[in-house]
Every structure is written in structure tokens, then in C-alpha cells.
């Protein structure tokens, strides 16, 4: 479904990175944006790609940065509940960057350059903490920027099916992002399957670092849950 929408959008639209219309926004999309309490912010302070590590925000949310030369960065932190087992909350922390295209039909396509990654943790299961690649092309059907009388510019993104993303507030008109180049070595990797049937991909560096910080009694569990 998503791939079909992408093909249709690309086929019927010309790239227009610098073409903003009054209908779409009260300001350009360039800058740094964050949802909710605005604690999840891309750039230095969130992800450490060379070490395949994260500095965890105080709250969940999502942050985006867009530069005026077509570069983007995403920071995302979220919980997913399990209705059958409420105690088995899964957390996901995501970082990725790459190039974005603004289409003249109002859509946005984010294309990663291949060094994104995510950490998945759960209170349940034998494999409760693992790293894996995250390089998903993201398509947003539409976007709007309004000026809130209290908070200033507010970005609204709509997913490929039209459902809205949580509103994003502008933290700065300048993009807060890491260097615009490949920042993580994705060479030597290990592919495994978790007890829940998930296929995971870790670099050897990530697996070595994880095991170095886990005692035999704590393997499969993380101090992350001590909040």
C-alpha cells in the first residue's frame, strides 16, 4: 500500500524543496521541531551513532530537524503497551538521517542514507534489549505549519494514510543535527532471532558493547527501566 502511494506521488509530482506556498505554512519547514513536552530533540545529546548508543530523553516523543539543503534527522522515543500482558511494555528509541524531498502536491518523502538504528527493550522475554538497523523511507501525505498564539510555529504531518502525527513545535528556526554524512559502521553484522520470533540485526560492535555492560544476572534486562 505504502509503496503504491510513493510511486503515485513521485509519478505525479516534481521535486520542490524550495517551493513553499502560503496554503501550506506560515513559515518554512527548516529548523528543529519536537512534540509534546519537547524533550526529544535530534542532534548532539540524543544519539551517538559511532558507539551505537543513546542518551534517553526524560519523556517520550519525536523530534525532526530539516535543513535548507534537503537534509533531515529524526529522533524518536516511544512505548508500546501489550494488552494481554500490561507489564510487558516495549520501548523503542530510533535515530536516522538522510535527505528529504518536498513534492509540489504537498507530500514529503524522507530517504535515509543507511546508518540509522534503533534500540528495542522489553520487561519480558529472553531477548529484552537489542539494537538493530533502522533505515525506513518515510512518506507523509501532507503537512501544514500554523502559528499558534502561545507556542509559535506548529508543524502538522499526516502519514501515508492521512492519519496525523502528534503536532510538532518549533524549537529553533535552525536545524539541530549531527554531521551530514554516514556516521555508523554497518559492516560486520550478526543476524539472530529473539524468543518472540523477531529477527534482529546487530553490528559486532553493538553486541560486544552490550555484553560488556551486562553481568550474568542482568543479561536480558537493562537499567533503563529504573526510571
TrEMBL record:
- What are the recorded GO MF terms, alphabetically? unfolded protein binding
Keywords, A to Z, come to: Signal
The secretion signal range is 1-16
According to UniProt, the name of this protein is Chaperone for protein-folding within the ER, fungal-domain-containing protein
Q: Does the keyword GTP-binding apply?
A: no
Reply yes or no: does the keyword DNA-binding apply.
no
Superkingdom of origin organism: Eukaryota
- Among the record's GO biological process terms, what is one? 'de novo' protein folding
Which GO cellular component terms, listed alphabetically, does the Swiss-Prot or TrEMBL entry include?
endoplasmic reticulum membrane
Q: Which organism is it from?
A: Mycena maculata
Pfam families membership = Rot1 (PF10681)
Amino acid at each position: 500500500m505504502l509503496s503504491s502511494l510513493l510511486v503515485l506521488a513521485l509519478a505525479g509530482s516534481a521535486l520542490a524543496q524550495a517551493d513553499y506556498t502560503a496554503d501550506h505554512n506560515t513559515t518554512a519547514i527548516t529548523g528543529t521541531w519536537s512534540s509534546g513536552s519537547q524533550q526529544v530533540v535530534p542532534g548532539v545529546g540524543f544519539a551517538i551513532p559511532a558507539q551505537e548508543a543513546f542518551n534517553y530523553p526524560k519523556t517520550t516523543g519525536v523530534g525532526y530537524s530539516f535543513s535548507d539543503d534537503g537534509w533531515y534527522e529524526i529522533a524518536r522515543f516511544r512505548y508500546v503497551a501489550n494488552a494481554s500482558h500490561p507489564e510487558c511494555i516495549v520501548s523503542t528509541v530510533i535515530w536516522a538521517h538522510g535527505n528529504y524531498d518536498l513534492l509540489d502536491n504537498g507530500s514529503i518523502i524522507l530517504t535515509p542514507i543507511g546508518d540509522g538504528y534503533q534500540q528495542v527493550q522489553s520487561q519480558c522475554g529472553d531477548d529484552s534489549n537489542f539494537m538493530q538497523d533502522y533505515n525506513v523511507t518515510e512518506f507523509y501525505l501532507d503537512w501544514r505549519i500554523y502559528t499558534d498564539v502561545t507556542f509559535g510555529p506548529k508543524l502538522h504531518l499526516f502519514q501515508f494514510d492521512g492519519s496525523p502525527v502528534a503536532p510538532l513545535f518549533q524549537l529553533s528556526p535552525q536545524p539541530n543535527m549531527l554531521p551530514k554524512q554516514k556516521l555508523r559502521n554497518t559492516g560486520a553484522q550478526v543476524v539472530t532471532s529473539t524468543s518472540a520470533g523477531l529477527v534482529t540485526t546487530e553490528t559486532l560492535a553493538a553486541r560486544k558493547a552490550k555484553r560488556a555492560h551486562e553481568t550474568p544476572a542482568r543479561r536480558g534486562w537493562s537499567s533503563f527501566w529504573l526510571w
